[in-house]
User: What shape does this take?
Amino acid sequence: MTAVDAPAARRGTRTAKLPRWLKGLLGLLAILGPGLISANAGNDAGGILTYASAGSQFGYRTLFLIVLITVALVVVQEMCSRLGAYTGEGLGALIREQFSLRSGAAAMVLLFVANAGLTVSEFAGVGASMELFGVSRYIAVPLALAAIWGVTVLGNYSRAQRVFLVMGLVFIAYPVAAVLAHPHWGTVASNLLWPHFVHSNAFLLLSVALIGTTITPYMQFYLTSAVVDKGVTPATYKAERIDTVNGAILGDIVSIFIIIATAAAIGGSGPLNSVSQAADALRPVAGAAASQLFAFGLLGASLLAATVVPLSSAYAIAETAGVERSLASKLREAPVFYGLYTVQLVIGAVVALLPGNLVSLVINAQVLNGFITPVLLTYILILANRRSVLGAAANGPVFRAVATVSVAVVGVLSLVVLAQTVAGWL
Amino acid sequence: MGRALEREDQALQARPSRPPSTLGYGGSASFIWVVTTGRASVPAMGFNKPTWTPGRERRAVSEKHFRQLMRLRARSERSARERVAVRQLEGSLVSLAALIGSAVKDPDGRKVGELRDVVVNWTATTAYPRMTAIVVRTGKHDTLVSYRWIEVFAPASVRLHSARAYARAVERRSGDVALAHDVLDHQIVDHDGTQIVRPSDVYLATIHGRVELVGIEVGLRALLRRMGPKRLRSRVRPQRVIDWGSIDGFAPRPGESVRPRGRRASVAGRPGTGIELDGTAGEVKHLRPSELQAALQRAETPRGGEPA
Assistant: This one.
């Protein structure tokens, strides 16, 4: 850890020569930076389009949901990073150890399905953003597939990840757009503080999509493994907890502004039909260039998530099975890892190329995630409750109550919508 | 493709010592060789005439192709050897994963309880850790039954010597490791804390009349076997095994500030987060089935003065 800190400290002394305002800005970024970036990584194609759709279809009325989801997200992510820090193992491995091999395998199958769905939506995001630039998705998606696979397996993954992250930072423009669009702040405040249900199936379905895209199953597995990889121990867990909570809250603040900006621009115009409609929300900031700006950010966010999501499920499954899992190993040394990664990428690209509306495809993938989330959350909750796993760091009575209520609400909502969906088919 | 290679393989086996040539081998090769090089050391009489033999037609084989073929042959020979070893091991290896949950019966064949765990202890005198007891669950009650009162059969069954054995529960000793609790599916880390493996099965075998922990399976096939139907679960097929004889010692790895409470910290011991090995990841040897078999045979041969 000290070896990593040393260069950072040296860099810190160099900034002393910079002008004052820049130093202040850098300081602010240093505080907000890691959280903001990780929060932004959560705002992938699925997230942005789902929030935008919420804003266009129901105006400000979904805002209270985001506040509730944020509470659940903070609770869940805190449990995940605690599990990682105290046990030193990923979630899949913990489920296999603490429940049974079959439970672990079932969790992995669910994660794979959820992440394959997400990958589809990321490739759909790539296709949609390139269509805004006037490139057909039948060219853009295969190209993106080849580029992503090549960069991760053959090239420099971390550099590519940084480029995608910076591209995705475009979406920090949303808060500015929301302010410039002059929303009814009174309505916004009342919607944030007080539940405004809409009695319709579409609202329920969108709620599940919002849950699925905010409390993504992949995020929890990714977070736990990242905490383990960083080498966080119980002794250094406090700082990690602040980071985790900040990340969750900041990410949801960006989501709230996406909904406000879209609601102010095109609120009440029904469900989102095309990506260019979603881009209209950025018009107050970028004017005529809104569409290009939105496409640029969406492309970055989609590419980043299309790399990270399949990688994280391949990693989690390989960890649960106990086999080699690292981008540093050769193709032949880690066949399970690379095989799963490639299969997911190919599924994602192929489904995204099927003819149909890309936006509804993306939102359906989020609904699928919303159905799977409560199952995996139940595992996480039970693990974090167990004193035999976490000892004194296991959930206390208050935390346990809050977490149980969160998971139960999410579960009941998904069950209701699932029942409605199935009933709709019959 | 497969059949063509097989045919070439057969032909190679017929004359393995001949060097690769661009012309090929077989009955006709020597004739052509003699004629084209002009070194007529062999009289070109009738018996040396090129004759057509079914299955012996040869294409020209390049040096590179030849080496590939030899590698293929070595691989097929090796896999055949491993298959034989696996079949022979099946009669002697006990699979822990299959053993867990199986019925423990008394001499009359009545079910006494369900096997929950196998406890081993490592004393410095043996190459492998020895089984000291099993954990039997009757109803909601766990009992440690000493190895003296039980008999373990490959691939996965346990019988009590006498009906009264059950009454004689033993105490758990320090250094005991509960295999299902601490080893199976748990991570094994080395001295530096590097994770080595996550065992997908644990193998026991009878050596010198005592059941000993001989190795842990790290292959993926064991995972599939365990998730499959119950009937197939006792089909022990070692794939990649870590020889427990190559490991110096181990200890249950205590979880950070984990305090045992309730049923989970029962006779099987307090839960840890896997076990820690003496030594480093580099020293751990992975064995193929045939190597495992050889190691077991070595262990079974009587050592100095000890009766077999």
About this structure: The helical segments of chain B are 2-14, 27-37, 63-90, 96-99, 179-183, 221-227, 230-233, 289-300.
